[in-house]
């Protein structure tokens, strides 16, 4: 057994191991030689695994081993859930999940998808699973007792988890599909690709910056480097996936942001006796009796069964009022999502990368790209059903299901998806906004695409801030780009604060006078020492609603004709001042004072680390996004926001900075659960160690893989 902390064991390994390492001091890390059957993992001092393998399958084995080492309890729970057996493992609270996955046939389809992989890629999936199993077998004390029954896992489990995550969490999660309209909010991510024409050293730069909840298992990010014959790939992915979704090599770099692509359709059915109406006649439901086990409090098992109905469009569920609807999910005949990500990372140039994209195996996500040759790209990617009618709102709601002509027969081709390649502006960006302002000045126009592709807008303040920081003709150094990425200023404050202060200047209410004094002294940023940020945030919530998403109180509405300067102005200055008076009272109640330093109550607190926070709500136009949870025990901590960050420049040698906010391990006792919070608090990024020579200078432990 290997326990935490491991530093006492370093000396035992380094003397013998490092002397035998083949060092590639120039360029990227070289593959390992035949010192071990599979290769080895060099764990750096931030708990990042650098896998060196003799074969591609060996790299997948090492990555599975590494994920088990860092996140075994999460991985096994995710895989057990994807089997549709969570209630069997963890009790009745998991029944809804099992019923949803069983009704949608997720694990049966995973078996099918596994069989459809090429023999070599099936082996890769099997080796990733074997790495997890071998780690668990050799370190049983590191595996929580409640997830041990999931072992062993298989290549089918790997694919089942990916299928569940992509198609039944992102595209068609139960809570989304049963709502009206479904909660298809895009979530949070930032991405930039900057062309050589806009950088001082003439090299392209890519920013990867996803934002997702910190405490949700299937959204947890994991940082790693995978080295094997012909490849060296650095980046991050979501725990349980066998490939890096946010990746860069010496040749290419790519990232993802969540988009709102409508990959699922809900068809309202017209009942007809024991069937439903379609094309003017009665159709019978097909049925299947499905069963699952439920672990009881005393450890015994109860078996439950239910009859699942299916219409032509898909499995049948019930709306809140009891009306039946059938769920159609696009892309269930396209099993190559994992393989496409892998081949994207193996690309050496834009043509090879684009060839992988054209397969359209990834169900959703904007893809932002840059490469060594200076190309940049934005793609509104996804498996999008092709329709003959209707706009985004129509297909986002419940669609009448009595005509077979509304059932998609094809998907929108790659050539017809919105994309921007090497624009004159020298940049592309996305912050979960629709595709139309992916660069500025704009080159994409909604009228050139079917109305169901995306909404016109509005563009969020975070997306406007993203575009504003890149628009223009100035050349930026790498350090300047890093500084812009770390910007904590609120665009909303720049947009409305002068008008608000002017409107409040003559108001004689004590609360207003106090608020004006504080806000006049505030620089508009959410930094730890900012006095005024909490007051403005409270006012903004009153002005724009609890999610800062209501533009109704602005004098000038948002317009695609002027997308980064609207909305603007105060529709009712008097009302805005009244809200300021309310905000002063509310801020005192919540935080004790209207000028309380932001970082005294906004804390980066994990385990024993508790540091002053910075960054704020993206919908107020803060690019460095932290969604703060409610006050508890005198502080508030992040619910969502900055997770993985990487900024890379294709210079020689390559420049790479990064951060994984909450650390690279969730296992109990790991020192790498909170060891990067100091960087988050100080608004700095780590150097990412890319070459073997760099890694060896920061080795914490070495795993030999057999």
Name the descriptors:
globular; 23% strand; alpha+beta; 706 residues; 20 helices; 4 domains; Glutamine Phosphoribosylpyrophosphate, subunit 1, domain 1; 31 strands; S45; hydrolase; Penicillin Amidohydrolase, domain 1; ten-stranded mixed β-sheet
Q: Can I get a quick summary?
A:
The chain is an alpha+beta fold and 706 residues long. It has 20 helices and 31 strands.
Overview of this protein structure:
It comes from Gluconacetobacter sacchari DSM 12717. InterPro entries: Ntn_hydrolases_N, Pen/GL7ACA/AHL_acylase, Penicillin_amidase_A-knob, Penicillin_amidase_dom1, Penicillin_amidase_N_B-knob, S45. This is Penicillin amidase. Belongs to the peptidase S45 family. Helix 2 (56-82) crosses helix 6, helix 2 crosses helix 7 (155-171) and helix 14 crosses helix 17 (573-591). Strand 6 and strand 7 (246-248) form a beta hairpin. This protein has 20 helices and 31 strands. The chain is an alpha+beta fold and 706 residues long. It folds into four domains: 7-182 and 691-705, Penicillin Amidohydrolase, domain 1 (Orthogonal Bundle); 188-260 and 333-395 and 409-485, Glutamine Phosphoribosylpyrophosphate, subunit 1, domain 1 (4-Layer Sandwich); 265-329, Roll (Penicillin G acylase, beta-roll domain), CATH 2.30.120; 491-622, Penicillin amidase (Acylase) alpha subunit, N-terminal domain (Orthogonal Bundle), CATH 1.10.1400.10. It starts with 6 loop residues before the first helix and ends with a strand. Residues 1-27 and 29-36 have low confidence and may be disordered.
């Amino acid at each position: 057994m290997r326990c935490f902390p491991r530093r006492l064991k370093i000396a035992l390994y380094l003397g013998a191991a490092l002397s035998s390492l083949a060092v590639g001091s120039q360029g990227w890390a070289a593959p390992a030689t035949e010192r071990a059957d599979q290769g080895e993992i060099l764990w750096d001092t931030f708990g990042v695994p650098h896998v060196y393998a003799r074969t591609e399958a060996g790299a997948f084995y090492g990555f599975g081993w590494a994920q088990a080492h860092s996140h075994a309890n999460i991985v096994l729970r995710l895989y057990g859930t994807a089997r549709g057996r969570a209630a069997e493992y963890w009790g009745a609270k998991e029944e809804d999940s099992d019923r949803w996955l069983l009704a949608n046939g997720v694990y049966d389809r995973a078996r099918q998808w596994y069989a459809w992989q090429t023999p070599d890629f099936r082996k890769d999936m099997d080796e990733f699973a074997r790495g997890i199993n071998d780690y668990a077998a050799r370190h049983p004390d590191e595996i929580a007792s409640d997830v041990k029954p999931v072992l062993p896992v298989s290549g089918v489990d790997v694919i089942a988890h990916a299928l569940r995550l992509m198609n039944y969490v992102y595209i068609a999660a139960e809570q989304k599909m049963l709502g009206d309209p479904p909660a298809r909010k895009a979530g949070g991510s930032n991405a930039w690709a900057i062309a050589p024409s806009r950088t001082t050293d003439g090299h392209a730069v890519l920013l990867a910056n996803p934002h997702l909840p910190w405490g949700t298992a299937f959204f947890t990010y994991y940082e790693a480097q995978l080295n094997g014959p012909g490849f060296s790939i650095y980046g991050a992915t979501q725990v349980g996936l066998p490939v890096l979704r946010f990746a860069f090599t010496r040749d290419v770099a790519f990232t993802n942001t969540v988009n709102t692509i409508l990959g699922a359709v809900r068809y309202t059915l017209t009942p007809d006796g024991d069937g439903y109406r379609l094309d003017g006649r009665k159709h019978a439901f097909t049925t299947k009796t499905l069963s699952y086990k439920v672990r009881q409090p005393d450890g015994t098992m109860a078996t439950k069964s239910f009859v699942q109905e299916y219409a032509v469009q898909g499995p049948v569920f019930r709306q809140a009022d009891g009306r039946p609807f059938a769920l159609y999910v696009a892309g269930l005949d396209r099993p190559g999502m994992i393989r496409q990500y892998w081949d994207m990372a193996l690309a050496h140039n834009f043509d090879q990368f684009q060839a992988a994209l054209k397969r359209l195996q990834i169900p959703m996500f904007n893809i932002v790209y840059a490469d060594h040759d200076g190309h940049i790209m934005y793609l509104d990617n996804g498996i999008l059903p092709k329709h003959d009618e209707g706009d985004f709102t129509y297909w986002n709601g419940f669609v009448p299901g009595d005509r077979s002509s509304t059932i998609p027969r094809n998907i929108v081709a790659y050539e017809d998806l919105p994309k921007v390649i090497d624009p004159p502006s020298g940049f592309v960006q996305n912050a979960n906004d629709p595709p139309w302002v992916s660069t500025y000045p704009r080159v994409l126009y909604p009228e050139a695409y079917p109305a169901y592709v995306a909404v016109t807008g509005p563009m969020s303040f975070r997306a406007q801030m993203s575009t504003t920081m890149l628009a223009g003709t100035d050349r930026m150094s790498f350090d300047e780009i890093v500084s812009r990425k770390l910007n904590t200023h609120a665009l909303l404050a720049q947009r409305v604060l002068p008008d608000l202060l002017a409107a409040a200047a003559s108001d004689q209410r004590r609360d207003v006078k106090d608020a004006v004094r504080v806000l006049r002294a505030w620089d508009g940023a959410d930094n730890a020492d900012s006095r005024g940020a909490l007051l403005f945030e409270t006012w903004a919530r009153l002005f724009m609603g609890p999610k800062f998403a209501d533009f109704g109180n602005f004098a000038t509405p948002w317009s695609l004709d002027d997308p980064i300067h609207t909305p603007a102005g105060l529709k009712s200055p008097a009302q805005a001042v009244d809200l300021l008076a309310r905000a002063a009272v509310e801020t005192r109640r919540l935080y004790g004072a209207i000028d309380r330093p932001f970082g005294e109550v906004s804390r980066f607190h994990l385990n024993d680390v508790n540091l002053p926070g910075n960054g704020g709500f993206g919908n107020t136009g803060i690019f460095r996004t932290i969604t703060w949870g409610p006050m508890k025990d005198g502080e508030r901590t992040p619910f969502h926001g900055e997770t993985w960050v990487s900024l890379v420049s294709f210079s020689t040698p390559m420049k790479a900075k990064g951060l994984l906010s909450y650390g690279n391990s969730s296992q109990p006792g790991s020192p790498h659960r909170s060891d990067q919070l100091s960087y988050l608090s100080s608004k700095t990024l780590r150097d990412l160690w890319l070459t073997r020579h760099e890694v060896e200078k920061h080795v914490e432990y070495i795993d030999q893989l057999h």
